[in-house]
Amino acid sequence: MAKSVKVHSKARELMREYVGDIYADVRAAKAAGEPVGYSTSNFAKEIFEVFDLKIVYPENHAAAVAAKKGAVEFCEKAEGMGYSADLCSYARISIGFDERDADFGHGLDIPAPDFLCVGNNICSTVNKWYENLAWKYDIPLLTLDVPYGTQADYEPEKIAYVKSQLQGIVDQLEQITGKKFDYDKFQDVLETSGENGRLFQEIMDLIGQTKPSPASAFDEYNFMALMIIARGRKETTEVLKLYLEELRERIAADETTFPGKEEHRIFWDGLCCWPYLRQNSQSLAEKGINMVGTPYTGDYGIAFDDLYGMCLNYAGTNNAKGLQLTLRSRSDMIERYQCDGILCNVMRSCKPWVGIMFETQRQLAKRHNLPYTTFDADQADPRVFSEAQFETRLQGLQEVMDARKE
User: Does residue 259 form part of some domain?
Assistant: First the structure.
């Protein structure tokens, strides 16, 4: 049994400092008259690094606002403007935040965009969300269209289609920035981005494959932020290498930051609940349940070193995959991480994910002979979450897993 310890993570401290610097750089760029962009989380962001662009990722930003208990205020503001409560809470938070009457603080105040970049490989809501912003500010809207992966394998012609759009995006960014695209620098960024994907996957595997785990996969959410907003940067490499070193040291010392005895290991399908992250993790720990794997962070553990690999990465996000590809990736994670059960967040906001979730879990439970349960929630809107329901469902899952160990 690994000894549970509380540690001061230098990697986490450095990560927070770096994220704060990125937001500060965005504000400074806007003040200096430089173009600032908004982008969806899985756009071809490596291109931004070549132009040294300062980018805000509204989904990531909305998650941070929700974690700071600001979701309800901005959701209600958007709903008061006529936006349905059934829309993605990330969109409602972002739209409401854009109309805020005063600074929010926490280092999260962001300027208005000068251009927008949207990829539909995460959902279709982003298309209209960003289109509305483009109309409001009368600014350019760059799009990356990613076909839905309906087959059991990634079709080369679909990847080629994604690749064919990149030159047009480069041309538009050259016009916006007044800079020429540096193809040698782009290759360097690709290699850095691919290396960071490899390092992030290694982090997930150390947490998921080591038994007992040196940490909880909840820790991955912290470092996922860098994979969204700074995947192609050397600073991210530094942070990830430092965190890997910390994990290896814990394993060597037979220590873990999971606060309790690891009785069960579960796979968490769906996004996390940012406003209830602490409650969720503590409740699991009190029951001896460690969440060791989730496809949410799995989106960012892809390694590549060329343009085709980058396009394949962005065509393989969770919400760009149909049932067969989804089953394959989740089944692999469940097997490699030796999971005892499955917990599913039925997110009110994320329709593409939830649309195939129930059939996915039915087939995974049958294939791996695992118990699973669901709970109703949302990634950012706390009004949808019921702590009582979460506890009841989790207790039921725990009882089944306990019985199977007897």
Answer: no
